[in-house]
Write a structure and sequence with these properties.
The radius of gyration is 41 Å and the shape is rod-shaped. The mean pLDDT is 92. It is low in regular secondary structure.
Length: 356
Amino acid sequence: MLKYSGTEWAPAADNAGGGGLTLPYAAAENNAATLFSITNNGDGTSLEGVNNTSTSNIGAVRGVVSSASPGGFSSGVRGINNGTGGLGVGVYGSQNGSGWGVYGTTPNGLGVYGNASANGYGVYANSNSGTGLNATSNNGIAANFSIFNNANNNTVISANSVGNGTIVNVSTTGSGAGVRASTNAGFGVHGITASQTSAGVVGDNNGGGEAIVGRTTSDIAGSVVGRNDGGGYGVRGFIATNTANTGVGVLGQVGLNSSTGRAGRFENFNNTNTDANTLEVVSNGNGNIPDNTLGNASSFLLDNNNSVGAAVRAEVNTIFGNFGAAGVFGISSGTGGRAGLFYASNPSGNGASSSR
């Protein structure tokens, strides 16, 4: 190199006089100002570190905060982008294979922390054909979402799609719950649909058990409630495809585990509700001549040889004696049939077919 000695130019080694940079180079300073700064006014990279080895745990550029108790928001490596628009990245990590573009690790803190001081995203995950965000844990919770501001009424988790796939898919091979929802005042699960051919909540059981089960210990409320504010039905039970004559559209039971109470009850609390019946049973069946216990619109059986109860008890409490005010009102509207039939089938029985 040509070096100027103060009086003349002469060839000399680059590090002559201690003014050059010899590698490896290390220095220790105590200065509040920036120790090393490079500014590039062109399009090239201002500072680049390249490592050509294949050794594990190497770093092309390494930043270290050596203090065991550094100040808040101190960083080993900090990237700043002063752009105020939507372009630019503060820290950019990329990897050409199947490794990690950005990797963060910590024993008890946060491996990677993202914060949006205004209306942006704290952490944004995106993928062209893979999974946008994947969270796993060996011994802890895989993902946690929380709002700690009790004045914040926004949704904790929002999932949207413009495709026809499932929005949220939950699968487990263990014995835990697929989805568990708990609330003090709101709905544990609230399903809404805007299509008549769809349903707000659908439960399937492919193993022969119940699809939807409601449980409660309340003395005043039901474990399953169907409500309709329109003109349809509150609860509908039907047999879809089975033809074995063993299906039951709606089943009410009592007496399991020595329980007591009613298996079914129908009530009307509006005394002006005179254009509808509290309970209706309608069938277009042909009847069963060989076995008249089957094929009926309704059938009541009290199956207890020591019982003194009635299979059907009907009572009317009224001061009027007009037509229709009767405990039992039977009509035969066809060309045949009987309005009422009472038959004692056991000739040695003690009971009469009817009494007055």
